[in-house]
Amino acid sequence: MSASRLPRAPRQKVDGVVLLDKPCGMSSNAALQTVRRLYNAAKGGHTGTLDPLASGLLPLCLGEATKFSQMLLDADKSYVARVKLGVTTTTADAEGEVLNVRPVLADDEAVSGVVAQFSGEIEQIPPMYSALKRDGKALYEYARDGVTLERAPRQVTIHEISAGPLEGDEFDLAVRCSKGTYIRTLAEDIGERLGCGAHLVALRRTAIGPFGIESSVPLLQLESGEDARALALRSADLLVSHLPEVPLAPDAAGSFLHGQAVAAPLPPGATECRVFAEGRFLGLGRVDVDGRLAPRRLIATAAGA
Question: What is the pTM (predicted TM-score) of this model?
Answer without folding.
Answer: 0.88
